[in-house]
Sequence to fold (384 residues):
Amino acid sequence: MLSGSELWLLRLMADRGLALLDASALLMVIEERGELRVAASSGNVSVRLRVLPVEGSALGALYKSGSALSLDRPRGNEAPWLHELGIEGRAVLVAPLTMEGHGGGLVIAVRSDNRFRGPDESALAAFAASVAQRLAAERSVEIERLRYGMQARERERTRWARELHDETIQGLGALRLRLANARDAGDQQELSGAVDTILEGLGTEIEGLRHLITELRPAALDELGLVPALEALARRAQAIDGLEVRTEIELGSGSHEQRFDPELESTLYRIVQEALTNVSRHAKATQAVVRVVERDGQVVASVTDDGQGIPTQTQGSRTPEEELKGGFGLAGMRERAELVGGELELRPAPTQGTVVRLKVPLAGRPEQHPAAGSQEGAGSPALA
Fold:
């Protein structure tokens, strides 16, 4: 399936091609897994069928020919593929999209009132070559992004497995051994003492598991919203890592907390979470400030610490591989930012330490709404 960035590129190029050729309509057809899909269209056009099989369709036969085509006043028997798509026009131009190793497709331009001429055919061929080149480049970038994203996720899975093995399983094993030794000793007083110790130890292990589950998916984010979830995250960082964390959150007005779509809320939470984790592990900081504000049509989230700062080579542009090896989790953070159309910035703090800042435009995102239960007097469950 075409990715969101590929679809966006094709739609943008369709609009440009329409203007370039002064056409009534322009269609981008892409081959995927034995099917031809109208991935983007621009102009005055209503496509009857947007998906056709390569085998057994007239459009498929045109695609497999790999040839350009120019038709003036086409009749049904001359271009049955036009009937398949439900398109009518005074003149039609077709140019193949050839992307070596990445499939292919067609660019179809239609004029309803006059014919295409020789320069138009050359312009469409050059335009199709440009589309193929840009789409192939976008697919290569997407493949690299997915590859590095998979590596980052595997690193996270390895960390969770190590924590479960080295902490939870080892801790439970030690408790089991303590209970077995007390049972075999046959001393009731020793057994009673062991039970008390084990109960306390089980409480610690349960708290550790709860913390790990919260890292995987915080219930507060779904149930209460972004603000309580971030405040709970700050409290956990302070309790577990000894880091003094202050939150400055300005979303909505008065008693109405602004809610964003789930994808954006999850992204904001995860990037703040990863940034605080980096501060605790790498920055040698004592304090951090989490700030999230909405203004001028965008939401800005930042984490500022008073630590030792970041190595010079970490600042600015780095390759995904360098980011993954750096231990700062930047690859995953940048990937999350890009998926919501945002921009992630990492720079030195004004006085000392580091600032991680995420900016996400809100235009075009799903409709926002006040948080349920955010009105005055509305009850909400307490955070654990």
Q: What stands out?
A: The chain has two domains: 4-145, 221-370. The mean pLDDT is 81.
